[in-house]
Amino acid sequence: MLVDATGQSARSSILDFARQFGETTVEIIHKSAALPVQFSGTAQYVPFPRLTGDVACFVTFHGDYSGLLVLNFDGASALELAHAILARAGLTRNELPSHWASENARGAVGELTNQIVGHARQAIQRRWDLSADANIPVVVPLQGLRGLELHAGGWGEEQCIRLGFRTPGQKRFHLELALEATSPVALPVLPPLPGAR
Residue ranges of the domains in the chain? Predict the structure, then answer.
């Protein structure tokens, strides 16, 4: 892990970043949808991120650290989350979308992705003083496609992790986080120079 408020100096890994994105996902869904989503305690290393399921959202970010966030949903999990988000935003039962491919459902999971990447970046900056800017998330309906592989150019070797989540309705969705190969190491705090004020 990177140095934290205790001043402990150590090495970070993609697992530290993935845990932050995972915890942020649970927090944002609780705030925006009032749903207690469960976060799997097991992460999987995967060769590269993929867009899979019925609907996928992805967003790139770059700066002190650079990477790609992907959220993959099957239709049922996307619709469950969209219903909860839109109902909390004030839509009536009759106004809620009936299909995951509807504009409102896709818009809801796209905004969810936007909030997750934004809050995770803020948390990383508070915790480790590393900053990154993000683009606007893209929502991709994958009707009939078995999956699309995403390869980031210009990073060299990348690291990728998949995290699993379960909704209260027992629907699964996944987060995939790809980062440029990097191992940030916190610098030790040096004592002040003699005579320095």
Answer: 14-180
pLDDT tens, 181-195? 766 666 777 777 777
Q: What are the φ and ψ backbone dihedral angles of 12, each rounded to 5 degrees?
A: -100, 170
pTM of this prediction exceeds 0.85: no
pLDDT 10s digits, 48-65: 888 999 999 999 999 999
CATH superfamily of 14-180: CheC-like (3.40.1550.10)
Question: What angle do the packed helices 103-128 and 14-33 form, to 10 degrees?
Answer: 130
Query: What's the length of the chain?
Result: 197
In the DSSP assignment, the letter for residue 166 is E
